[in-house]
Amino acid sequence: MFENLSERLERSFKILKGEGKITEINVAETLKDIRKALLDADVSYKVAKDFCNTVKEKAIGTGVLTAVKPQQMMVKIMHDELAAFMGGGASDINVKGNPGVVLVAGLNGSGKTTFSGKLALHLKSKKGMKVLLAACDTFRPAAIDQLKVLGEGIGVPVFTIEGEKDPVKIAQESIRKAKAEGISVVIVDTAGRLAVDQELMDEISALHKAVNPTETLFVVDAMTGQDAVETARTFNDYLDFDGVVLTKMDGDTRGGAALSIKAVVGKPIKFVSTGEKMEALDVFHPERIADRILGMGDVVSLVEKAQEQFDEKQARELRKKLSRDKFTLQDFYDQIQQVKKMGNIKDLAGMIPGVGKAIKDVDIDNDSAFKATEAMILSMTPFEREHPEVINGSRRKRIADGSGTTLVEVNRLLKQFEGTRKVMKTAMTGNLMQQMKGFRR
Question: Comparing C-alpha atoms, which of 284, 294, 420, 280 is closest to residue 343?
C-alpha cells in the first residue's frame, strides 16, 4: 500500500536536500515533482493541485527555522496536510440503537459480503457486541450461502427468509429479531449494483429509508482508483452515506483512492481491508497512513496489534520461565503462532520505521516464512521440545529427516532459539512488560 507514492515523494524531497532555506523557487520545484507523484498514484488532478497549493502556502508562510532543515520542514508540512486531506483523525461508526443498524452498500464485486463478516467479527471481538448478519443480497447466486459460511466461521448468526426476494422485508424482520433477542447490532449486507442502474439505485435508496440505519457504509475496491471516487460521489447522492470502506488495499501500491475520497466526497474513510483473512480489517487512521507514506513507519498500529494477542497471564508465566531459563522450544512454537495471528509479516515489518523500504521487493508469506521452523519443532518429541539440551547429533539428524529439512537448518534453528531465549529474557525480565502495560493504560 502506497509503495510507489512513498518512493516518488522521497525523491521529491531530495530536491531540498542541502538547501539552506525554503524559497519560492525550491518549493515550486519540489511541489512540481510532488504533484506528478500524486497524479501517478491516481489522485485526481484537482485534488493534487489543491493539495500542492495548500502545502506551498504553508511552506512559504513558515519562514526560515534555523533549527530545522528545509527538507525536514517540508516533510512535516506534507505529513500534516496528507493527514488532513484523508480526514485528520479516525472516525468511529455509530452502532448505538435498539439495535444499531449498519447498512453496507457498494458496487458488484467490491467485497461487501466479506467486509460485512469482517465488521461483524470486529464488533464482536473488539467491542464485545452481539451481532446479527442480515442476508439481503437476493440477486447474486450463492450470496446468502457465502454469508452463512462467513457467519459460521466467526460465530455470528445470519438471518434470512427462505425464498424471500424483497430485501426490505428481510432487513425489517432481522431488526425485529434483534430487538426480541437483545442483539446489539444488525449488519445489513445488500446486493451489489452499478451506479448507472437506476432501478437498483432506487431499490437501495428505498431499503435505506425503510430500515433507517444508524450507519451507512459505502464499500469500494481501492484498486479501481479514480473510478472509486466517482462511484462514491454517485452513491452518496442517493444514500448520503456516513463513511467509506476501502477493500483490497493490500493489492494497490498507489493509494490514490484513499487520498482523494475525503477531499472529493467529503465523507471519511472508516475502515480498510488489507487481506483475505477475517481479521484483516483495520480502522483507518489518516495520521498513521501519512506516517507510512512518508516512510516513518507506524509503530502505534504495530503495538496495538501486539496488544490484541497480549495475554497478561501467559506473559507472567513466560516471564517466570525466562527468569528460570525454562523457556522451551514449545514456548518458542507458541510465540510463532501468536506472531502469525498479528497479520501479514511484510505488513508488520513495514510498520517499523526504515524497514518497509528495505523489504519492499521481498515476497514474504506468513505460512512459508515459518513453515520449515514449525515442521522442525513438530518433528521433535514432546520431551525434546521441553528439554532442548538433550538434542544431540543423532536426534538432530532424525528431526531433519522427519521435517524434510537439512541438518544445517536444524542446527541454525537451535542456535536461533538460544539467541531468542537470551534476548527475550533480557527484555521481559526488564522494563518491556511494564512499557506494554503502560500502553494498555
Answer: 280
Give the neighbor-by-neighbor strand order of the sheet with 215-221: 158-159, 131-136, 185-190, 100-106, 215-221, 243-247, 269-273, 281-283
pLDDT interval class at 80 (50, 70, 90) = confident
Answer yes or no: are the C-beta atoms of 219 and 188 closer than 8 Å: no
**What sign has the CA pseudo-torsion 37, 41, 47, 51?**
negative
Compute the distance between CA of residue 232 and CA of residue 268 in angstroms, rounded to an integer: 11
Burial class (CB in 10 A: 0-12, 13-18, 19+), 46: exposed
Residue type, 368: S
Beta bridge partners of 244: 218, 269
Q: What mean pLDDT value characterizes the chain?
A: 79
Band the pLDDT of 358: cuts 50, 70, 90. Answer: very low
More confident site: 220 or 193: 220
DSSP class of 295: T
Report the relative pairing of strands 185-190 and 131-136 from DSSP bridges: parallel
Q: What is the 3-state secondary structure (H, E, C) of 133-188?
A: EEEECCCCCCHHHHHHHHHHHHCCCEECCCCCCCHHHHHHHHHHHHHHHCCCEEEE
Domains of the chain: 3-85 (1.20.120.140), 100-290 (3.40.50.300), 302-440 (1.10.260.30)
b vs e for 231-256, b when ≥16 Cβ sit within 10 Å of the residue's Cβ? bbeebbeebebbbbbbbbbbebbbbb
Cell numbers representing residue 149 in the block: 459460511
Local structure of residue 14 (DSSP, 8 states):
G
How many residues are given for the chain? 441
Q: Which of 258, 270, 348 is CA-nearest to residue 309? A: 348
DSSP β-bridge partners for residue 133: 158, 187
Nearest in space to 244 (alpha carbons), one of 223, 266, 219: 219
Range with top average pLDDT, 23-27, 44-48, 354-358: 44-48
Burial 116-126 (b: 16+ CB within 10 A, else e): bbbbbbbbbee
